[in-house]
Design a protein that fits this description.
This protein is mainly α. It contains four helices and two strands; from the N terminus they run αββααα.
Length: 170
C-alpha cells in the first residue's frame, strides 16, 4: 500500500452509480430474506440449535435459537455503518497514491468494492442462517464443507478484482 498523506487527498462527493443502487437493493433483499428465514422457521426450531461446526461440517457446539438473530442484527448494523463509511473515501487505505487526477476513479472503485463486499457479507450471513436452520431440523445435523470455502473465494475474488482495477487506474 502506498502511504500518501490522507490530509492531502481531495475530498470528493462520489455519486452512486446504478451498480451501487442495485447492490444496495440486493443487500436490503438479503437482510429481509434473513429475517424472513428466521421468522418463518422460528416455531419449528428446537430450543437448542447448532452454533458451531468444524471444517468437516460436524456440529461442535449448540446454542439457543436466539443466536440466529445475531446474524440478522450483524447484517443490519453493517449496512448502516457502511452507509456512513462510504461517505469518506478519502480516509481509506489505497494501493496507489491518491492525487487530484486519480482521486475520482480510485474513490469510485473503492466504494464499489465496498458495496460488493457488503452485499456478499449480507447474503453469506443469510446463507449461514439457512444452513443452520436446515441443520437444526435434520436428524444428523451437518454443514456442507463448501460453506466454509465459498465465502472465502467470493470475498478474495472481490478484493482481488478491486486491487487489479485500482492498479490499472493509477
Amino acid at each position: 500500500m502506498h502511504n500518501s498523506s490522507k490530509a492531502d487527498r481531495p475530498v470528493l462527493n462520489v455519486t452512486r452509480s446504478s451498480e451501487m443502487i442495485f447492490l444496495d437493493v440486493l443487500a436490503i433483499a438479503g437482510i429481509v430474506a434473513g429475517l424472513i428465514l428466521v421468522f418463518a422457521n422460528w416455531q419449528t426450531l428446537p430450543d437448542k440449535i447448532p452454533a458451531h461446526f468444524d471444517f468437516s461440517g460436524k456440529v461442535t457446539s449448540y446454542s439457543s435459537k436466539n443466536t440466529l438473530w445475531i446474524l440478522s442484527g450483524s447484517s443490519i448494523f453493517s449496512f448502516f455503518m457502511f452507509r456512513i463509511l462510504v461517505r469518506y473515501p478519502h480516509i481509506f487505505n489505497y494501493l496507489v497514491a491518491i492525487t487530484r487526477e486519480n482521486a475520482a476513479i480510485q474513490y469510485r472503485l473503492a466504494i464499489t468494492m465496498m458495496y460488493w463486499l457488503l452485499t456478499e457479507m449480507v447474503w453469506i450471513f443469510t446463507l449461514i442462517q439457512g444452513q443452520i436452520i436446515l441443520a437444526a431440523k435434520a436428524p444428523n445435523p451437518t454443514l456442507h464443507p463448501l460453506l466454509v470455502l465459498f465465502p472465502v473465494v467470493v470475498i478474495v475474488g472481490t478484493i482481488g478484482n478491486y486491487l487489479w482495477k485500482s492498479f490499472q487506474s493509477r
